[in-house]
Each structure stands twice: as C-alpha cells, then as structure tokens.
Amino acid sequence: MRIPLTPAKADKLTALLAKANGCGRAHTYTHASDLMALAEEAEASLDRAGIPKSKRKGATLAAASGPKTFTSAYQRLTRLYIATRVELTRTGSGWTVIAIKRVDHWTSEGAFARLDLTASQREIVSSKALARTCKLW
Predict the structure, then answer these.
(1) Mean pLDDT of the region 102-127
(2) What angle do CA 29, 27, 97 make, to 5 degrees?
(3) Tens digit of pLDDT for each residue in 117-126?
(4) Rounded to whole angstroms, how far apart are CA atoms 132 and 111?
(5) Cβ distance 96 to 5 under 8 Å?
(6) Does residue 29 contact residue 35 with C-beta atoms inside 8 Å?
(7) CA gap 43, 49 in Å, rounded
(8) If you average pLDDT over every residue of the chain, what do you get?
(9) DSSP secondary structure of 1-58
(10) Are residues 38 and 61 in contact, defined by beta-carbon separation less than 8 angstroms?
(11) pLDDT tens-digit series, residues 42-69
C-alpha cells in the first residue's frame, strides 16, 4: 500500500483505518487527521534536526496508537488492548502511508513513534550537532 497522506485521500485512509481496527476505537487511530498529525510532528522533528526539505526523502516513521501510560494498578492486570500501527515514509512531495495494521498491545506498553533517518540524514544531524558543541572559543 502506498497512499499519499493528503486531504484528498482522507476518506480512503479513514476507511482503511476503520477496516484495520475492526471494533477497536478507544486507543486506535480512527481518522486520517490522526495520521496527518503524526506526519506534522515528524516534519517538525526533521526541522529541529536541521535537515533541509530537499534531503528529507527516505525518512520513515513507525508509530503505534494508545495511551502514553496506564495507571500502575491497571498495568498489573496485564490486559491486551487494541492499537493501530502505521508506517509512513517521506517522499519528495510529502508523507506516504506504507502500512496500517491492528496490533494487540499489553497494558504495560504505551504509544510510541519512531523516526528513522537515512545514512545521509544521520550524517547531517551529527555534523550540525558537532558544529554546535565543538566550538573551542
């Protein structure tokens, strides 16, 4: 699946999320706007890292829905809850949805989002970090 994350494709993405989630609603991504918010956060992270827009192609975002944490009493119950896992990749024109699937998470696991960079993007980030910290005077 390769669907551009655009407002024009919002209805199709929302339908795919509903199909993947089944009856789960409480801790899942239910609308295309949830995915667009993830993409905006990833784009902001790339901005903060100092990666120019022309070099952002190839970055990937893997995220799972769910609460940040459950109360410790609820965690001890070791129950499963339904969550949504999505994978997005950055193309030259924006973000593209690669995969949407339902996952069962234990209550001890929370939501997560992981942004993976290409080798050249990691090099840009590390060179900018070294330039900021290695000034002698």
Answers:
(1) 86
(2) 20
(3) 999 999 999 8
(4) 32
(5) yes
(6) yes
(7) 10
(8) 86
(9) --EE-SGGGHHHHHHHHHHHHTT--TTS--SHHHHHHHHHHHHHHHHHHT--GGG-TT
(10) yes
(11) 999 999 999 999 999 999 999 999 776 5
Residue indicated by tokens 């827009």? 53
Helical packing angle, 32-49 and 119-133, nearest 10°: 50
In the structure encoding, which two tokens stand for residue 83, read together? Answer: 């969550």
Tokens of 106: 């234990």
List CB contacts of 136: < 8 A, sequence separation 6 or more: none
Dig out the tokens for 75 from the structure.
């965690």
Residue showing tokens 């005077």: 137
CA dihedral over 71, 65, 102, 10, signed as positive or negative: positive
Which tokens go with 65? 């829905």
